[in-house]
Design a protein that fits this description.
Blueprint lengths: L49 H24 L5 H15 L12 H20 L2 H14 L8 H23 L1
Helix pairs in contact: 1-2, 1-3, 1-4, 2-3
Length: 173
């Protein structure tokens, strides 16, 4: 749909394309309670704000981390890629950081920089043919738990810790 030429008061130049269903720039706006409301498009436009981009980046980072875990287990992965992938995963999951996390901003900044850089370096060291295979496998298992037997282990550990605390409290107080 294009803007008709020669309309008085039109702010758009003649022939400017316009999305279907949108009113012209000079169209009269109906007053409250006067007339039907304009029709909305069938689906809202995709979110393109910074939150949506950040969410997509985090999802891709998670997928790539899973792909690196899959690459560590594969015998076709080069040794240097396995070493850098292991160091990246070890740093990401280690409670010891270069800059402690309790320092505001800087504590999280080292994780936000070093982990993606380690993933990028590991990805560069893996051949493209293997990386596409690992990435498709990672997309298939991204929303599934990697270690399905871990929930009972974690719950049992917490239960034993609470029981130990209760025993110590009853014994020494």
């Amino acid at each position: 749909m294009t803007v008709p030429a020669g309309r008085s008061g039109n702010r758009e130049p003649a022939g400017t394309p316009r999305a279907p269903g949108l009113p012209a720039a000079d169209a009269a706006v109906p007053e409250a309670g006067g007339g039907p409301a304009p029709a909305l498009p069938p689906h809202p436009p995709p979110a393109t704000g910074w939150r949506a981009r950040l969410r997509a980046w985090a999802r891709a980072l998670k997928r790539d981390a899973i792909a690196i875990l899959l690459a560590l287990r594969d015998p076709r992965t080069p040794l240097l890629a396995k070493v850098t992938g292991f160091l990246t995963c070890a740093y990401a999951f280690s409670p010891i950081d270069l800059i402690p996390d309790f320092i505001p901003v800087l504590g999280q900044l080292d994780d936000l920089l070093l982990v993606p850089l380690g993933i990028l370096l590991t990805r560069r060291l893996i051949p493209d043919r293997l990386w596409t295979e690992f990435r498709t496998q990672a997309e298939a298992v991204q929303d599934k738990p990697l270690f399905p037997g871990s929930l009972p282990v974690v719950l049992l550990t917490w239960l034993l810790a609470v029981a130990l605390c209760a025993w110590v409290a009853a014994r020494f107080w």
